[in-house]
Write a structure and sequence with these properties.
Blueprint: E1 2-11, E2 14-25, E3 29-34, H1 45-52, E4 55-60, H2 79-92, E5 99-103, H3 105-115, E6 122-125, H4 133-152, H5 155-162, H6 165-172, H7 184-196, H8 200-207, E7 221-226, H9 236-243, E8 248-252, H10 259-262, H11 264-274
Parallel strand pairs: 3-4, 3-5, 5-6, 6-7, 7-8
Antiparallel strand pairs: 1-2, 2-4
Helix pairs in contact: 1-11, 2-3, 4-7, 5-6, 5-7
């Protein structure tokens, strides 16, 4: 079920109202799912059903992405602010220290929630924030090129391309190792999500200085990296392990930057194991 929650957060400019869209499925221990930049909560659809058989699954559209409105004017998209916003969202949903799972930007946010003691466990799939400066520039350049391509294509062109495996590969092979597996409707929807998201540029601007440099000593952390990630290179997982020495580092064979589509069974198993 999709729902919108509105609440207030404290900002340097005072208290501001924020709204966030989420979907909730299943029952059991709560698991919050956070997508990456330019994506939306539907990125988790390949694994949601598997997880919901054992968990209370809450998939969130981050502020300024998917169906969630942008943050109010003057409120930054930096890591502390967005993490604080997600913490308040969890409070509003009655989630006391849920398990938090994130991909890319969502993985960085999951780790920050863990660092703040707001997560029971953290599972980070190809998390941002462990790059060198050169790797960051490469990733941001790739993301901007994807965004520009999405902005340039009329909807009928996107819909035609999504009907064929070759077209789905052209649209999504940067993030998926197996783009042919993605349904045509999902490819169209996520191309529109990338085109229409209001949080893209402010998030990239805030991300220029985003590095995760803190250990998370009191929360179990799992970091998983696709062997075919073309945006955040898998050697960044080794850096994550150096920063968080007790983290469990897992390789996802044959998976790209958004691994949920490439191998749903493997990713779901990693999440369920990490949240036990």
């Amino acid at each position: 079920m999709t729902a919108t929650v509105s609440f207030r957060i404290d900002t340097p400019a005072g208290s501001r109202e924020v709204s966030a869209v989420h979907e909730r499925h299943g029952s059991g221990e709560p698991v919050v799912l956070l997508h990456g930049i330019g994506h939306h909560l539907q990125a988790w659809e390949p694994v949601t059903g598997i997880l919901a058989a054992e968990r209370d699954v809450v998939a969130v559209d981050l502020p300024g992405f998917g169906a969630s409105p942008a943050l109010p004017d003057g409120v930054p998209y930096d890591l502390p602010t967005v993490a604080r916003t997600l913490g308040r969202l969890c409070e509003m949903l009655g989630l006391d220290r849920p398990h938090v799972v994130g991909n890319s930007l969502g993985g960085l946010l999951a780790l920050e929630l863990g660092r703040q003691g707001l997560a029971r466990t953290v599972t980070a799939l190809s998390p941002a924030g462990f790059w060198s400066e050169g790797e960051r520039r490469y990733a941001f350049g790739t993301l901007r090129a994807m965004r520009q391509a999405a902005l340039a294509m009329p909807l009928p062109v996107v819909e035609r391309a999504a009907r064929t495996a070759a077209g789905r590969a052209a649209l999504t092979s940067t993030i998926y190792a197996r783009p042919g597996r993605r349904p045509a409707a999902a490819v169209v929807a996520e191309t529109l999500a990338l085109r229409e998201c209001t949080g893209f540029e402010p998030t990239l601007a805030a991300g220029r200085d985003a590095l995760f440099t803190h250990d998370v000593p009191d929360v179990p952390v799992t970091v998983a990296w696709g062997s075919r990630d073309r945006i955040l290179l898998r050697r960044q997982g080794v850096r994550a392990k150096q920063v968080i020495p007790k983290a469990r580092l897992i390789r996802l064979p044959g998976c790209g930057h958004v691994p949920m589509n490439d191998d749903p069974a493997l990713v779901a198993r990693v999440i369920l194991d990490a949240t036990r």
